[in-house]
Amino acid sequence: DAGVIQSPRHEVTEMGQEVTLRCKPISGHDYLFWYRQTMMRGLELLIYFNNNVPIDDSGMPEDRFSAKMPNASFSTLKIQPSEPRDSAVYFCASKLTSGEQFFGPGTRLTVL
Amino acid sequence: AQSVTQLGSHVSVSEGALVLLRCNYSSSVPPYLFWYVQYPNQGLQLLLKYTSAATLVKGINGFEAEFKKSETSFHLTKPSAHMSDAAEYFCAVSAYNSGGYQKVTFGTGTKLQVIP
To answer: What is the DSSP string of A49-89?
Structure first.
């Protein structure tokens, strides 16, 4: 398996623009997680899904953030409108029940 | 509710010295425990995991951790530090919540510096 795939790897955008981050989990995994990592706040869990259903989105910072998982092999994290404070590395991870998480390489987002 | 506490956000050791990174957890149900490593500009990767089998768990790169239920600890050790061990290390706990779903909680991370 190719592991967790994230795209794009780098994204530079201007404040106010919509940003969409994409994730393809490992085939067969039933959990998918979105994290954000910054120097100031460390690793933060934003939202996680089980069998494509959002289970806990309490970590989503505000209504500008939304995440979807339309099927078992694809998820998106959208920020609209983006702000400079959203600049961070966003990680997607997937796992099997009772297994460890496998992390993607991350998307480095810069909002100017 | 579950939580993870990593003592020491930064740890420095000399090359060849013992590495000890501390992790304490709390969980109301039997947990699974993990250590992950993150090298600069990379994602997290699994070092080792405890899933209720042997309490002493061996991982990659010579690391090991011991699950101590009485102390609610899962400290990470390596007998002899290598320069390539410089990275950030995260402890994580995973357990079923009241809704029947697995909840994963990460610690705040410990940055390991290895001094030549």
So the answer is: EETTEEEE-TT--STTEEEEEEETTEEEEEESS--GGG-EE
Model confidence at A1, pLDDT cuts 50, 70, 90, reads: low
A88-98: b or e for each residue (b if 16 or more CB lie within 10 Å)? bbbbbbbbeee
Give the distance, in angstroms, between the CA of residue B69 and the centroid of all CA atoms in the same chain.
15
> For the segment B92-102, what is each residue's pLDDT rounded down to a tens digit?
999 888 888 88
Strands ordered across the beta sheet of B19-27: B2-7, B19-27, B73-78, B64-68, B56-58
Q: Does B101 touch chain A if contact means CB atoms closer than 8 Å? A: yes
A43/B contact by beta carbon, under 8 A: yes
DSSP lists the bridge partners of residue A77 as: A21, A67
CA–CA distance from B5 to each of A18, A43, B76, B105 (Å)?
Answer: 36, 14, 13, 10
Shortest Cα–Cα distance, B106 to chain A (Å) = 8
pLDDT tens for each residue of A40-56: 888 999 999 999 999 99
DSSP A97: T
